[in-house]
Amino acid sequence: MSGLKWIGATLGWSLGGPIGAIIGLALGSLGDAMSGKGGFLLGDGNPKNQQRQQRRQPNYRTRPNYRTQQQRRAQTTSGDFEVSLLILASVVIKADGSQDQRELDFVRNKFVELYGKDRANKAFKLFKSVSKQTISTRDVCRQIQQMMDHAARLQLLHFLFGIAKADQMVTDDEEAEINRISNYLGISSRDYTSIKAMFYNSSDNAYKILEINKTATVDQIKKAYRTMAKKYHPDRVEHLGEEHKKGAEDKFKQVQKAYEYLQKERGF
């Protein structure tokens, strides 16, 4: 499979809407053929045909009914997650007005960890092309929110904080951008605070990760741990592929560490 067609076979709903348009433009700038004997990615590279393809896609500005939304979310693939991650990562990296090399290295290294060197190189090539575009974060996030399940969206958020922290400090601009993305993705403030706490050092981080306050009883701590362990369990994203299941283990380990910390602090 030549060029960037490596990802074509794993794309589902992200072929359309604002995400499809962004990826199509990025691939066009790279001069990669969109179809042919090697397979397809986002149409056939002909602007007129791409426009016709886009017109056939659902209107992502209109929220679908619950049943339709659930049916579509069940179709999310590893490729859908990957291109969503590429686009949102490019937004966060530019949030503070510059692209820090450490953040770029983090993205590249994370891709290598998730996908292997060959696929990571191709993904990063696409990422650099995407990062040159002006992106409507709201439109992209609304498409993701409508089509991607909650566990996968939490995984996206965790990755974005990892990017921001790659240079050892999350700037105010970066945090504001991630918070805005989180709101657009339909992630609750409690879930946002929980994941954010995994990247900061403070005395109450363990409580924040478990989504409880310092006055919680031992029974409430145990209950919170069971709830959060279930929410962040890697099996929740196994439909995205083994590579993303492994990536979700970081969040799960943070929950375990928070619980163990409180066990020692409270003596139970």
Automatic annotation (TrEMBL):
The J domain, residue ranges:
205-267
Q: Which Pfam families match?
A: DnaJ, TerB
Signal sequence segment:
none
- The answer to keyword Transmembrane applying to this record is yes
Give the stretches traversing the membrane: 6-27
Please indicate if the UniProt record lists Chloroplast as a keyword.
no
Give the UniProt keywords, A-Z: Membrane, Transmembrane, Transmembrane helix
What segment(s) does the record annotate as region Disordered? 40-77
Residue spans of biased composition, Low complexity class: 49-77
Q: What is this protein called?
A: DnaJ like chaperone protein
